Amino acid sequence: MVDRRSRPSLLHDFATWEAVLRLLRDGGETEQAASSIRVAGRIGRQSWSLPRQRRLPRPDRAARSQDMQDEMQAVELVRRALSDAGVDDVPFTAEIAPTGETELRLFGSSPAVEPGLGNPHPGSLILVEDAVPRPWLCLPDPVPGAVPAPSADPALLGRTLHERLPDAIGATDAEIAAAEARLGVALPEELKALYRVTRSRWEDRADDHTAAERECRAVGCELFALDGLYIAEASSRRTLWKFAAMEAVVTPPDAAVQGLVGSPGWIVFGDNGGGDRLAVDLTPGPRGHTGQIIILSHEENIGACLVADSLTDLVMRRPGKRSGGSGGDRPPAVAHVNIRSLPSIEAAAHPGLEVLSIGVWEDEPLSLAPVTGLPRLRTLAACPGTLADPMEIAGLTTLEFLELGPEEWRVLLDAGAVPRSLSAAAITADGIRNPLPVVAIANELLALWDRPRITQTVLEGDIGPARH
């Protein structure tokens, strides 16, 4: 879908882009197209990615903003236009003739396409509306024998916090009941005891600027206000399909914490000061305790780690000592075949395999025959050129996510063999500067599921001849 603008808005005014195009043409990484050159990039309101060679700073100092002044000024014109148009970011490509005559293409957003990762290529394609990777649908397994840890002592916890925070304002029973109604879960007695000492509201501290620091030391974390408690269900851990599809929910029999994305029994009540969330765990693993304290890393898409056996232990500075479980000798649900990990697809294949990633490979291309018919295989990501016969993918009938290079996708599209079981897909475009062929393949895939395509707006102008 191509739109050739004659009366453009500010974003679709060629003049808005002239400085960026000259910058890339005169000092960027370009691709020769006959007698013309092609440039491409992405500009967003918060960041941008332009493939150009920046001037290195002097050896005796670090880089400064002045070193990028020309780039910042050029990009700022586009960023203002994005803001005026209410658009987050725009990937683009342009073909520039030696005379300066230019055809600029701006790629529009689609609700079926996730953002690219700092390049002009499209991100993952959501082929089924509102689809989420299977791990995000997993609920906790019941653990009938789970009980609170022997160390859980609401009375001791309350007395200790009263001694440490004598002037704090605690929550009333009505306020605690309101929090339970909002969350849809009864708060464990230890958490109630904590909030009966302090409800942790900013307005309760008046002009006491050290109150929050004292509370953090007293509890052992940055405590959320009672009305800031939330349930860390899977939906609270939003992750791009490209990464989420590579995860698997695994809970070994000796695990203290279930290997979930989220749980209706994870009540988040604090932060460690670095963006990692602390939660009371009401759905522990086979070797865990109800009410144990876990931490959800902001750098991880899945799982949590044990911090303390109880909230009392956290406050009393008694950390948990049990591991999260090793899984024993069970073969992994996620397998990586590449020059540094597994040496073959045969080594990865087993009935419990869910995710197969084929990375950098220096040997002969690989056959997918060993994983054909595996009942749980839902993700295949294969670097370009690593598959001996892309048509073997047609035999993988349980796939929900597939990531391939453009040539492999071309084989499947031409043969009408794209798996209809897919919920999402991605095109590996590393090293490909021209986004047009990648966008074309993306739109063909979206069309198969009747999903909104990526639009293109073509602007024509003249940026003058190159500087010499």
Short note summarizing the structure:
The protein is of the alpha+beta class. The protein has 11 helices and 19 strands.
Please provide a written account of the structure.
The structure is a single chain. The protein has 468 residues and is α+β, with helices and mostly antiparallel strands. The chain has helices at 14-27, 69-85, 154-164, 173-183, 189-197, 211-219, 241-244, 311-315, 345-348, 406-414, 436-448; strands spanning 2-4, 31-33, 36-44, 48-49, 89-96, 101-107, 125-126, 222-223, 230-231, 266-271, 277-281, 292-296, 305-308, 334-337, 355-358, 379-382, 401-404, 424-427, 456-462. The strands form 3 sheets. Strands 1, 2, 3, 4, 5, 6 and 19 form a 7-stranded mixed β-sheet that branches. Helix 1 (14-27) packs antiparallel against helix 2, helix 3 (154-164) packs parallel to helix 5 (189-197) and helix 10 (406-414) runs parallel beside helix 11. The model is unreliable at 61-67 (pLDDT under 50).
What is the strand and helix layout of this fold?
Blueprint: E1 2-4, H1 14-27, E2 31-33, E3 36-44, E4 48-49, H2 69-85, E5 89-96, E6 101-107, E7 125-126, H3 154-164, H4 173-183, H5 189-197, H6 211-219, E8 222-223, E9 230-231, H7 241-244, E10 266-271, E11 277-281, E12 292-296, E13 305-308, H8 311-315, E14 334-337, H9 345-348, E15 355-358, E16 379-382, E17 401-404, H10 406-414, E18 424-427, H11 436-448, E19 456-462
Parallel strand pairs: 1-19, 14-15, 15-16, 16-17, 17-18
Antiparallel strand pairs: 2-3, 3-4, 3-5, 5-6, 6-19, 7-18, 8-10, 9-10, 10-11, 11-12, 12-13
Helix pairs in contact: 1-2, 3-5, 10-11
